[in-house]
Amino acid sequence: MPRGSSSPRGGAALALALAGCLLAPAAAAFTCGAPGAPCGASIPAGASCGAKGAGYCAPGHFCGWVFSDSDRSTRCMPVPKGAGRAGASCLPGNALKPVASAAAATPKPVCADGSTCFFTPTPDASGWSAPPFASPAGPLLGTCRRVPAGCGAAPGAPCCPSLYHVASNPALPSPSICAGDAFCDYLRPGEPGFNPDWPAGTCTANRPGCGAIGASCCISTGGVSVDARCGAGWGQPGPKGYCAYPGGKATRDMRDQACRACPAASVVAANPSAYWGCPGQ
User: Fold this and answer.
1) How many CA atoms are closer than 13 Å to the CA of 170, on its beta-carbon side?
2) Number of other residues whose CB lies within 10 A of the CB of residue 154
3) Which residues fall within 8 angstroms of residue 230, CB to CB, at 6 or more apart?
4) pLDDT tens by residue, 126-147
């Protein structure tokens, strides 16, 4: 082959190599803290934020994480508009001050106006965790709501919100919806102040001697329900019983339900919904 020439095969290989260089996408440049940029533990290998720290994001953004079984990456996300005020999203725990160290605990979401943040606990054993440097984002952030002072303390006080499947920051004034053996008399549809998305009511004392056969039923408030309790089946005095309104007509006051002894099992089996708590029901 003449000097200076190249084989067709070699020339084709060179052409393919050059084409590959032209078509290959350029590596994305990493800009520390830029909106949408990786942050925290997701910063690319070899990249650094220097003195700013891995948790740094530009003003108005935070190092955020949307929980996913398949993706635990963290990126600089915008702080939700109006976050931190009652009725709006909670502020991410690291929105005001970035988390400086992977060893530091990520703060819980918070409210900035004195209201309480009700957030979704992350699904792990502790109820609260996040990847290094990052705060949970999206629905996990929760909502800021006003909580009445002294809620749940005693009969006559406003009920504390239920923490069924949610957590609060700061802690509520009372660890229960209503303290002691009081129950929450929730507002009903049509009553002033009723809000189907945010139940409210007044802590109310049970009547003396409740739960015994022939007495008023005891009323209790659970995570999302209010129940009438009666007889030995509920740890009350006497044999097992059930609760029923006199004459079968419900009233506004659940305490009007009377505790009655359970009938024979055959009677219960014929109409089990009428004898809640009785054997055979």
Assistant:
1) 8
2) 13
3) 211, 213, 217, 218, 236, 241, 242, 243, 257, 259, 260, 277
4) 566 778 898 988 888 899 999 9
Tokens of 56: 């740094």
pLDDT in tens, 37-72: 999 989 999 998 999 999 999 999 999 987 776 777
pLDDT of residue 160: 95
Residue whose C-alpha is closest to residue 230's, from 254, 250, 253: 254
Would you say residue 154 has pLDDT above 70? yes
